[in-house]
Amino acid sequence: MSKECFTFLLEKVKPDLTKKITRFQKPISPIERLAVCIRFLATGDSFKTISYSFRLGHSTVTEIVHSTCRSIVKRFKKDVIPEPTEEMWRKIAEDFEKLRGFPNCIGALDGKHFVIEAPANSGSIYFNYKHRFSIVLLALVDACYKFIAVDVGAYGRNSDGGIFAQYNLGKRLENGTLHVPIGKNLPDSSTFAPYVIVGDEAFPLKTYLMRPYPGHQATGDANKTNFNHRLSLARRLVENAFGILTQRFRIFQRRMKLAPENVDYIILSTCVLHNFLCEQKDYTGLINHSAQNAQPHLLNPLSVQPGRPANDAFAVRETFKEYLASTAGRNFIGQQYQE
User: Fold this and answer.
1) Do 319 and 179 form a contact (C-beta atoms < 8 A)?
2) pLDDT interval class at 52 (50, 70, 90)
3) How far is Cα 107 from Cα 92, in angstroms, rounded to an integer?
4) Separation of alpha carbons 49 and 90, rounded Å
5) How far apart are CA 52 and CA 63, in angstroms?
6) For the chain, which has fewer Cβ within 10 Å, the N-terminal or C-terminal residue?
7) Considering only CA atoms, which of 177, 174, 175, 195 is closest in space to residue 185?
8) With contact defined as beta carbons under 8 Å apart, do 151 and 137 qualify?
9) How many CA atoms lie within 13 A of 229 on its CB side?
10) 148: region left, alpha or beta (phi > 0 left; psi from -120 to 50 alpha)
11) What is the dihedral of CA 103, 286, 237, 93, to 10 degrees?
């Protein structure tokens, strides 16, 4: 993070971090509060280590980190993770075509488990398949590793597909209320296809969500194997984004001994800072960015969507499979890799 970015970040959160001066003591300055929080997120140092470094009390450092993370989410989230418009979806699809060679793709979807200390009296709800206690971040990522939408706070025992079905992202995609365009012809062809999200086997097959063919179906079928390969190239972007997030914020490289509600805000604030840092070359544009119509992306629980994929979903996947195996599809990805 450059000095200019830190200064801009400070100006945005300064109203929340400025404390009243009393006759008894001088409050900790906003710049020191922000420095403490960034140090904690970036290094993963314990509160005790940071308290020695800044000569502050242990409980004071704890309060500073939690309050600053909440302020970052409050002041920046609507600017750096806004609700996408139709124009934004089209731009995301263009980036996937130019940079990743997958047409009509508007995002890569996956979940990330962040290890936490077992909360008191929580039973097994946070206990995941890796035999650890965790909180899940479900994220939709664009072709430039930026988060389009995030959901934080799901229990570690839940699967990625279950979390997607239970939360607002899946419901709004199902209802068509996320302003996603209907689709367009695939490059260099007259074949029409909808805009889709790519995910792994943990997610359901939908007309707007593509998952790979099962292994037993793809074995011996070159077209299905090719589709799985092309989808994997696009889908791994979200895994790379999680890797970048973990490298930038080393707090995630160790087990977090914090209450789940505090972990939620720490994860969400790092997602916000991640997008902010991705835009740091033109960060000044955020000052004039209007976020009045933006909707929160901390998604709320909704009903489960059970059942098998509809025939339309199979038909959409077949459309992409046939196109990617065609001459136009092979030439399309070749042009992208040559660039």
Assistant:
1) no
2) very high
3) 7
4) 47
5) 15
6) C
7) 195
8) yes
9) 12
10) alpha
11) -10
